[in-house]
Amino acid sequence: MRNVRAVFTGGSDPIQFQDAEVTSPPPGGMNVRVVLAGVCGTDAHRLRGDLPVSQPVGFGHEGVGLVEELGPGTHTDSAGQPLVPGDRVYWFPPAGCGECHQCNVQQDIGTCDNFQWPPSAAEPNPAAFQEFATLKPNVAVYRVPDETPFEAVIAFGCAMQTALGAFRRLGRIAPGSTVVVQGTGPVGLATTLLAGLSPAARVIAIGAGGRRMEAARRLGATDVLSIEALSAEERRSVITDATSGRGADVVLESAGVLNAFDEGMEMLAKNGTYVVQGLYSGQGTVSLNPFRLNNYAQRIIGSVGGNPEDIHGTVVLASRFHESMGFGDLVTHRFPLHDLRGAIESMRDGGVIKPVVQIAAPD
């Protein structure tokens, strides 16, 4: 079999396509026929040059598909569920090395010293922007129940595990809290969903785009504030009034925009917690008043991605809530693999919630 895969070169024409032979999977791994590949904001940053590479690499880190062939010794997914060819799976291509302090002591693959992503395009790899992905044993992969549509899982993709990782680091949200979510892209919507499932009294989503704001309400936001209709000062005023002057107990940055940090800190109550999870790609600095931080007993938590348990949680949440909350409806645009650039550039359109690349038929 032949495999057409997208390659990021970082040059003037950064996306190229290669045609290679599909090789046998490694021991403990598998080959997967890719059905849908989710497009993430990180892919847009890569296209803009924010994530330079020194060699051609495979990319696309959100994939669902069908097991094509199991490698020697492979009988189950990462949760111990039996697998056979034809089974439906979701995998997260980036992986930790499994040998460093972060992987084995802190158990946090997102901060791994030798984080294995992106992979070289010169060899079979687990990237999702290709017809067949080759997964090594260290790639987390989970079986998708037959009754759960692929769209329900890929609607959030890595955004859900990012949000799950942020909530794990944040800890418990106290009953009656006011939670503010900055951003209504996939990360913001996943965060809104989790906040809505918590005992918070109020979940306020801040974002743009009519479809995204409607989705935020459906997923659990009690209030939505438009960055198009309200200034930053007006948004802060709304939150101040809604909390009798106290501010938000928890603010989760999910926008990936640097100026969200200052606005979020201004919204934060005494003893409040600010979680940064969207500022992954790019560079920049902000001013911070450490005296206010100290005297208000506030916390700032940085959170990068999730662990395998969060990848598994993405499938569990999709299986449980996809029908009642319309997860599949979040997939608003589909593109063929040869129009990958168009799929990534569509992220700039506020009317797009989740674009995906349709690579193969589901059955």
- Rg for CA atoms: 20 Å
Question: Taking all residues together, what is the mean pLDDT?
Answer: 95
Please report the total strand number as a whole number. Answer: 16
Q: Any low-confidence stretches, pLDDT <50, length ≥5?
A: none
Structural class: alpha/beta
Structure write-up:
With 363 residues, the chain is an alpha/beta fold. Helices cover 28% and strands 25% of the residues. It contains eleven helices and 16 strands. The protein has helices spanning 41-48, 101-104, 150-154, 158-170, 186-196, 210-219, 232-242, 259-267, 290-295, 308-325, 340-345, and strands spanning 2-8, 15-21, 30-38, 57-58, 63-70, 88-92, 132-135, 140-143, 178-182, 202-207, 223-226, 248-253, 268-276, 299-302, 331-336, 354-358. Strands 3, 5, 6, 7, 8, 15 and 16 form a seven-stranded mixed sheet that branches. Strands 11-10-9-12-13-14 form a six-stranded parallel sheet, sandwiched between helices. Helix 5 (186-196) links the parallel strand 9 (178-182) and strand 10 (202-207). Helix 4 (158-170) packs across helix 5 (186-196) and helix 5 packs parallel to helix 6. It is globular, with a radius of gyration of 20 Å. The two termini are 18 Å apart. The mean pLDDT is 95.
Characteristics:
363 residues; alpha/beta
Q: In summary, what is this structure?
A:
This protein has eleven helices and 16 strands. The chain is an alpha/beta fold.
Topology of helices and strands:
Elements: E1 2-8, E2 15-21, E3 30-38, H1 41-48, E4 57-58, E5 63-70, E6 88-92, H2 101-104, E7 132-135, E8 140-143, H3 150-154, H4 158-170, E9 178-182, H5 186-196, E10 202-207, H6 210-219, E11 223-226, H7 232-242, E12 248-253, H8 259-267, E13 268-276, H9 290-295, E14 299-302, H10 308-325, E15 331-336, H11 340-345, E16 354-358
Parallel strand pairs: 9-10, 9-12, 10-11, 12-13, 13-14, 15-16
Antiparallel strand pairs: 1-2, 1-4, 3-5, 3-7, 3-16, 5-6, 6-8
Helix pairs in contact: 4-5, 4-10, 5-6
